[in-house]
Amino acid sequence: MLTNIVLQTILRGYPSEAVDMAQGAYDRARHQAAPRVLAFAKLIEARAHAGLGNAGAATGALASSERLLERADADRDDEFTWITYYTPARMAADAVEVHRDLDLPAAALRWNNRSAPMSTNDFTRSVGLRMTVLATAHIQNRDLDQALVHGQRAIALSHVRSTRATDYLAGVVRAMSPCAATPESPTSPASHTRPSP
User: Fold this and answer.
1) Cα 194 from chain centroid?
2) What's the total number of domains in the chain?
3) Residue 170 belongs to a domain
4) CA distances from 65 to 40, 95, 115, 163, 173 (A)
């Protein structure tokens, strides 16, 4: 439960406090909790470090999460059903956000290849969030065409009422704004519009 509070702390813009909370949650539970629970705590710690721009600490926490998740997958005897959603594919999807936040788009896109496809019908909000994260990673990678594809898909899914989805879409718009500075620029959205027939 504390890790979900930590995630909200990150999303509200308090990554420093979130690091302390995530580390505290892990330290408190490390001798009692199942490996998958500990893996999730390390994932959230990685997200918090990424929010601070601390690549070494973020990737270290992410590596710890991955090791713990491997242990959890090998031994499911003492596992709670409420945490079974945290799978290697889910970790990969969150790792995309970690690397996007660190402005490491190539790594973000590599992690995306490890994440599982999700049904738009079943996971509309999650797919929309993922599309915004990918759009931003493609902008960081200077691939405006792919950024627009993912951004447009996210907008098409924006009928879901979610503050987080709205915030993520606003982040894509902010990231794209330098591209719109000069209409004649090959990376300008204006250069990607098709003339009317």
Assistant:
1) 32
2) 1
3) no
4) 7, 10, 15, 27, 31
